[in-house]
Specification:
Helix content: 40-55%
Number of strands: 12
Structural class: alpha+beta
Shape: globular
Protein name: SbsC C-terminal domain-containing protein
Distance between the termini: 76 Å
Largest sheet: 12 strands, mixed
Keywords: Coiled coil, Signal
Number of helices: 14
Number of domains: 2
Length: 459
């Protein structure tokens, strides 16, 4: 541990010294004489801001340092500054110096858990304001259906050390239009070997068996990718190679995303600390953090993402490797010339896609408003043990239709969950034995419906 601290201090000294020496030297070597002074002053100021944050870790100083680092052009210098700042923050994470880092640290730790039990509830509410009589009449039956929906579930989850094998089962209760549907679900995921396999089994409630003749006499619906490979004649390719690409880029994407979230939070205050709360009927205390996004913040965040050259390069590299591996899996080879053409098209489409997204969001702002609020509870062991939030969308129907009657529709999804027995001895219920007599394959259901749909069209 002592050697790590020593190394960190040396790294800090090198980076901070680079702020007034090494980094400007590189900047001068790569630029024209006219920007020498500007480059030196800019990097020196960044070093001073980072040094201030390290010596006085506070939310304000950390945000200022991150904004300063984000403005650097040299990716190597930017990386060193970020790593140095992050080390000091995470070495003092228990001192509550940065809400966004505390929450991201909890998310990272929770993603690595190997077992847990959970409770989840959600419902949907729809209502209208300033509606005409015709609108009220049209909305009434829709509101009756949507507002009646309530879902709650309890689940058990377990995985191996590498997180390549995951097992889970759930008991789900759906309350809809004064009917209660009780069902069970099982999940078995195995990403080891040449072909990853995912198997889901869902029990069929008695009330649902009458909805379609196919479900009569059946107890389960089965979704099994190994069966899909057989039925759709999917070539027996080595998907392990593709998983290798995911593993290669997974950590890099995670780090790039965390860096982006931290900068976005520094600019727009997305994460705030909200004191303490309790979960599990008051049995456990949690530290609360709130994530809040609305139209304006989302547009700003997307525009910021468009300027993130590191993330863009990472996406391009990932797609390039994915294309190569996909070709290898089919015993094909892509020439360098074709690969460059594909890369150029990817670059073009990424830019077009992001530009169109921003334009669509800005256009949407005129008639659609949304607000996402998520309160996360971190327990004493550093895991996210609760989430409670809402996603509210308000549609200004009058503006969409070019009217002045002020009619609006608001849809709100409320959600909350609690996690417990984390990394405990969780007993996941074994999957039931299924066969052609007691179950129906999900893909068969879809394929059986295709001819009937065609008949309807031709008729």
């Amino acid at each position: 541990m002592k050697s790590k601290k020593t190394l960190s201090m040396i790294l800090s000294a090198v980076v901070l010294a680079g702020g007034i020496g090494l980094a400007p030297a590189k900047a001068m070597a790569d630029t024209k004489d006219g920007v020498k002074v500007a480059s030196t002053v800019n990097t020196k100021n960044v070093g001073e801001v980072v040094f201030k944050a390290i010596n006085d870790l506070s939310e304000k100083n950390i945000k200022e340092a991150r904004l300063a680092i984000a403005n650097l052009q040299d990716s190597h210098t930017k990386h060193l500054y970020n790593k140095t700042l992050d080390y000091h923050i995470y070495s003092n994470i228990d001192k509550k110096v940065s809400p966004v880092d505390e929450l991201m640290n909890a998310y990272d730790k929770t993603a690595k858990m190997r077992s847990a039990e959970s409770k989840v509830n959600f419902d949907i509410k729809l209502n209208g304001q300033n509606l005409s009589k015709e609108e009220q009449q049209s909305l009434a039956p829709v509101m009756a259906m949507i507002n009646s929906l309530k879902v709650n579930a309890t689940s058990k989850y377990k995985s191996n050390e590498k997180n390549t094998k995951i097992f889970a089962n759930s008991d789900i209760n759906i309350d809809f239009m004064q009917q209660v549907f009780n069902l069970k679900a099982w999940m078995d995921i195995n990403t080891e070997g040449k072909q990853p396999n995912m198997k889901y089994i869902v029990s069929i409630p008695e009330a649902m068996k009458n909805l379609t003749p196919e479900l009569k006499g059946k107890d389960y619906i089965v979704y099994d990718t190994s069966k899909i490979y057989e039925k759709l004649n999917v070539p027996n390719m080595d998907y392990g190679k593709m998983m290798g690409v995911y593993e290669k880029y997974g950590k890099r994407f995670q780090e790039a995303l965390l860096d982006f979230i931290r900068v976005a939070d520094a600019k727009y205050s997305i994460v705030t600390r909200k004191g303490q709360g309790t979960i599990l009927n008051g049995k456990e205390k949690v530290n609360l953090y709130q994530i809040k996004l609305d139209n304006d913040k989302l547009v700003k965040v997307v525009k910021l993402a468009m300027q993130d050259e590191n993330m863009k390069k990472l996406i391009k590299d990932y797609l390039k490797d994915t294309i190569n591996v996909a070709a290898e899996m089919q015993d094909k080879k892509i020439s360098q010339q074709d690969l460059e053409k594909i890369q150029q098209e990817i670059d073009k489409q990424l830019e077009i896609g992001m530009t169109q997204l921003v334009a669509a969001l800005e256009e949407m702002n005129k008639s659609v408003k949304f607000e996402i609020v998520l309160n996360c509870g971190v327990n004493k062991d550093g895991y996210i043990a609760s989430e409670a939030g809402s996603f509210k969308v308000t549609v200004d129907s009058a503006k969409l239709q070019g009217k002045n009657n002020g009619s609006k529709y608001t849809c709100t999804i409320n959600y909350n969950s609690e996690l417990y027995n984390i990394n405990g001895d969780v007993k996941v219920e074994a999957m039931p034995k299924v066969n052609e007599k007691n179950s129906i394959d999900y893909v068969d259901m879809l394929m059986n419906n295709v001819p009937s749909q065609n008949k309807k069209v031709s008729a």
